[in-house]
Amino acid sequence: MTVEDQALVDRFLDMLAAEAGASRHTLTAYRNDLARGADVIGSLGTASADDLSRLGSAWAELAPSTVARRSAALRRFFGFLLDEGLRKDDPSAALPRPRFERPLPRILDEDQVRRMFEAAEDRASSGEAAAIRNLALLELLYGSGLRASELVSLPRGAVRPNQPFLMVFGKGSKERLVPISSRAQAVVERWLEHVPSAALWLFPSGKSHLSRVRLFQIVRGMAADAGISPERVSPHVLRHAFATHLLSGGADLRVLQSLLGHADIATTQIYTHVDSARLVELVNARHPLATRGR
User: Fold this and answer.
1) What confidence tens digit (pLDDT) does each residue in 160-216 have?
2) 128-169 pLDDT, tens per residue?
3) 201 phi and psi angles, rounded to 5 deg
4) How far is CA 148 from CA 96, 187, 214, 219, 234, in A?
5) The whole model's pTM is what?
6) The one catalytic residue among 36, 70, 115, 147
């Protein structure tokens, strides 16, 4: 990157930090993506539309998500130059716009989830603290659809008697209410007998709480106990199962969006593809034309 480009990038990043509150990690990512663009086209400050059009072929072997991210960084950079009067044109229309489909989530069917619960309940019947903890983790992952980070960071008093919901701090520190079943409450109460009263977390570990890596290992171990390939199961797969099985049971998509803590319903709509069989059945049974004679 030229000295002139470096100065422009520094001004751009200063703007992101001051006006958008971008974190150090975000600023570093922007700098790296802009540098990768400069590697191909040379000077960013004087790049033409023809220069930018070369990026598509230069980045052809990269993942579509990577190309989309780098193009977005360059697009924002050129918009900044135009707004600041540092350029009279914006060549970003020539940037590559890769098309990529979001992969469908891996899910477990209801029978596989049942087998996981049966195996976990059998182990917990021994009264062993770790087995009771693992059953409580499973109940909250599948029964409430929590993210791994939300689950491991629950405070000790998160689950209260006769309170059928949890207050969760999700992405962006946004609060939301999630349901908790009576059976999950009962297991958590059993687990709390093994948690020191002075502990800050519901699932303490060392000086902090259970890590996401350890949670991942525990969930895979429970899958193996149930005779399910561990590679197929993770905390996020159980969250997907929560969502998919709720939708199969007739849950409204907006309700599901709220329960999962999705900011955009487009994120939730992926479950309509997963449960396409039910949606076809719903249209055939409920659509007004389905009851009309031919």
Assistant:
1) 877 888 777 666 556 777 888 888 899 999 999 999 999 999 999 988 999 999 999
2) 999 999 999 999 988 888 888 889 999 998 888 778 887 776
3) -115, 155
4) 35, 18, 10, 11, 9
5) 0.57
6) 147
Instruction: Let me know if 102 is a catalytic residue.
Output: no
Of the residues 11, 102, 114, 171, which is catalytic? 171
Q: Domain extents for the chain?
A: 3-94, 110-282
Catalytic residue status for 262? yes
Neighbours of 41 (CB within 10 A): 19
Q: Candidates 1.10.540.10, 3.30.420.40, 1.10.10.10, 1.10.150.130; correct CATH number of 3-94?
A: 1.10.150.130
Q: Residues 134, 123: contact at Cβ < 8 Å? A: yes
Which residues are CB-neighbours of 158 under 8 A, at least 6 positions away? 166, 167, 202
Helix (H, G, I), strand (E, B) or coil at 60: coil
Whether 194 sits among the annotated catalytic residues: the reply is no
Contact 16, 30 (CB under 8 A): yes
Same fold, 3-94 and 110-282: no
Q: How many helical (H) and strand (E) elements, i.e. helices and strands, does the chain have?
A: 15, 4
- Look at the block and give the residue holding tokens 């697009």: 75
Q: What is the Cα–Cα distance from 123 to 142, expressed in whole angstroms?
A: 18
- Confidence check: pLDDT of 294 > 50: no
Fold exhibited by the domain 110-282:
hpI Integrase; Chain A (1.10.443)
